[in-house]
Amino acid sequence: MDFLKDSLLVLGRIATILPLLLFITLFMGKRAIGQLPVFDFLIVVTLGAVVGADIADPKIEHLPTAVAIVGLGILQRIVANWKLKSKRFDKWVTFEPTVIIQDGKMIPENLKRIRYTIDNALEMLREKNIFDINEVELAIVEANGALSVLKKPEKSTATKADVEATNLISAVSFPVIIEGMINQDTLTHFQLEESWLSTQLESNGITQIEDVFLATIDANHSLQVTLKNGVIPAIPPITN
After folding, report:
1. What span, in angstroms and rounded, lies between the C-alpha atoms of 23 and 120?
2. 66, 97, 125, 203: which one has the fewest Cβ atoms less than 10 Å from its Cβ?
3. Please, are residues 148 and 142 in contact by the beta-carbon 8 Å criterion?
4. What does the pLDDT look like over 4-36, one tens digit per residue?
């Protein structure tokens, strides 16, 4: 009998709490759903924890849960309005956009600052249908973690004839050195030796492989190198 009573109570809570949660989510606005900045993410996680506990445990008072949901929704709305009015406050509760690639070169310091690996960055580029880092003029990790990419002018547009005349494999670059470590699979794929790689590096004034943050190679054996402590061009400040 107690089991049936508790089951009916849980079903009743689901029927009442989900419409309230839907209303509060719509009240918070599309931005909270689509982008999930840091503070909004915390609000959503907290809402999930509160609602989950209320539904799963019949011993928890139902009304305080509803009050907590409404309170969280109002808090999120207040913070969102403060962020619109105060740029300083906005910086306190969210991440700054971070440039990770400029002029085809990764910026190691910025990658480390946001705790991204080279593989993370390359994966995000592939999701943008970019398989050669040298096509990128500027790549920015936005406050919500999404990647925005500006291609180099000569890479941004192509006619149908250009596409048909281009060997797609030649447009793909492969990592041959990652943080000072040689990727033997890439060398084997292109039937190259480490001596060839060393010669190419030396021709660019690089004598220590350990100094290389990322080096990529394409089907034409064109090598592009980013150094761990390379000179980074001045980047204008980027804001949300």
Report:
1. 36
2. 203
3. yes
4. 776 777 777 777 777 777 777 667 655 444 456
DSSP 172: -
Residues 227-238: tens digit of each pLDDT: 887 655 555 555
- Decide the pairing of beta strands 212-217 and 181-182: unpaired
Contact assessment for residue 20 and residue 50, using Cβ atoms and an 8 Å cutoff? no
Q: Both tokens of residue 107?
A: 């910026």
Instruction: Give all domains of the chain, ordered by start, each with its CATH number.
Output: 1-92 (no CATH), 98-164 (3.30.240.20), 173-227 (3.30.240.20)
Count CA within 13 A, CB hemisphere, residue 39.
20
Residues 183 and 175: beta-carbon distance below 8 Å: yes
Q: Is the pTM of this model over 0.70?
A: no
| Alpha carbons 188 and 69: distance in angstroms, whole number | 58
Q: What is the dihedral of CA 7, 10, 16, 18, to 10 degrees?
A: -120
Give the gyration radius of the chain's Cα atoms: 25
DSSP 8-state class, residue 129: T
Whole-angstrom distance, CA of residue 4 vs CA of residue 231: 70
Strand ordering across the sheet containing 105-106: 105-106, 98-102, 136-141, 147-151
